[in-house]
Amino acid sequence: MRDAYHEELDSIGDGLVEMARLVGSAIGRATTAILDADLNLAENVIEGDKKVDELHHDLEGKAIALLARQQPVATDLRIVVTSLRMSADLERSGDLAQHVAKLARLRFPERAVPRDLHATILEMGQLAQRLMAKAAECVITKDVDLALQLEADDDAMDLLHRTLFQHLIDDRWKHGIETAVDVTLLGRYYERFADHAVAVAKRVVFLVTGEHADDLQQDLPPEIQA
Amino acid sequence: MRDAYHEELDSIGDGLVEMARLVGSAIGRATTAILDADLNLAENVIEGDKKVDELHHDLEGKAIALLARQQPVATDLRIVVTSLRMSADLERSGDLAQHVAKLARLRFPERAVPRDLHATILEMGQLAQRLMAKAAECVITKDVDLALQLEADDDAMDLLHRTLFQHLIDDRWKHGIETAVDVTLLGRYYERFADHAVAVAKRVVFLVTGEHADDLQQDLPPEIQA
C-alpha cells in the first residue's frame, strides 16, 4: 500500500492526466464548432474551460501544500515542480481551445473558415487532439521515446501551418481581410496548442532523465520560418 | 547582515528584475527595428534573447536548489514558487519581442508595417515597454497599488489592439493580405507581451496578499472582445 505522501503525488499526476483529457477533447470539439458553425458546441467548449481552470488551481494548491508539508527532495521535488509547469501548459492549452470556440461564436451564423480551408483546419484540429492524447500518455507511462516522438508529430503541425499561410498569401485568395485575420489567428492557436502538448511531453523527458530537452517551445511564425 | 539563505532569495529577485529590464528594452528595440526596417537592430534583439533564456534557466536552477536545500515554508515558499512563474512569464515575453524582431528581419528591406499604422504600432511598443518597466518596479517595491494599476494600463493596450483591427477590416485597407497577416500577428505579440507584464505584477499581489488576483491573463481576441 502506498503512503499518504505518494498518494498525494499520484493525485497530482491524475489531475494532469484529467486536464490533458479535457483540453484534448476541447480542441476537438472547438474544431467541429468552428467548421460547422455549431453555436451550442462552441458555448459548451467555452463553458467547459472553467473545469480546466479549476483543476489547474487545485493542482497548484496540492503541489504547494506538498512542498510545504513534505519538503520533497531530489526526484520527488522534480516531480512536483515539473507538475506545476505541466499544469500551466495545460491550462493555457485550454484557453487556446476556448479561443477557437469563441471565434466560432463570434462569426455565428457565418462560418469563420472558408470551404477550401476546411480540410487543413480539420487536420490541424485532429493533430492537436492527437498530440494532447500522446502527451497524456507520456504523463501516464513516462515513456521517453514516445515523448521524443511528439516532436516529429509537431513538424506535421508546422507543415499544416505553412499550408495555411500559403493559402492566405496566394493571389487567388478571395475571402477578404476579415477572414484572413481570423484564419491567421486560428493557425496561431493550433500551433501554440501543439507547442504546449509537446512541452508537456518534453517535461516528462526531464522528469525521467533529469535533462532538459532543448528549446521547449519552438513557436514558429515569422512567418512559419522556412 | 543577511544570511546566505536570504541572499539567495534576493539573488532570485535580482534575476527577475534583470530579466524584466532586458525584455522591456527588447520590445522597445524590436519596435524601432520593425518601424524603421533596421536589420542590425533586429539581429541585436534576436541575439539578445539568449541572455534572457540563460537568466531564466539560472533562476530556475537557483529556485529549485533553494527548495531542495532550504525547504522553505509559508511566505518564503510562496516567494520561490511565484518567482518560478514570473521567470516563465518574462522568458515568454522575451520570445515575443524576438518575434517582432524576426518579422522585421523577414520583411527587410521592406517595412512590415504600413505608414498609416506606424503611430498605432509605436504606441503599442511604447506601452508594452512601460508596462514591463512598471512590472519590474512592482517586483522591486512589492507595491500592490502599482500592481493593480497595471490592469488599467492594459486596457489601453486592448484599445490600441482594437484600433489596429479596425484598420485591418476597414474597406479602405489597401495593403494586401500578407501585410494584414503580419499586422494581425504583430498585434497579438504586443498584446501577449502586455498580458505577461500584467501577470508578473499580479503575482506580486499574490505574494504580498496571499490572494490570487482573478483571471491572470485576459488574452483578448476573438476578435478583441467588445
UniProtKB/TrEMBL annotation, chains A, B:
This protein's record includes keyword Translocase: no
Main location group: cytoplasm
Domain PhoU positions: 16-103, 121-204
GO biological process, one term: intracellular phosphate ion homeostasis
Subcellular location: Cytoplasm
Alphabetical UniProt keywords: Cytoplasm, Phosphate transport, Transport
One Gene Ontology cellular component annotation held by this UniProt entry: cytoplasm
Pfam families, sorted: PhoU
Chloroplast among keywords: no
Quaternary structure and interacting proteins, as annotated: Homodimer.
PANTHER family the UniProt entry points to: PHOSPHATE-SPECIFIC TRANSPORT SYSTEM ACCESSORY PROTEIN PHOU
Job description of the protein: Plays a role in the regulation of phosphate uptake.
Family the entry assigns: Belongs to the PhoU family.
NCBIfam families: phoU_full
Name recorded for this polypeptide: Phosphate-specific transport system accessory protein PhoU
Organism from which the protein derives: Streptomyces acidiscabies
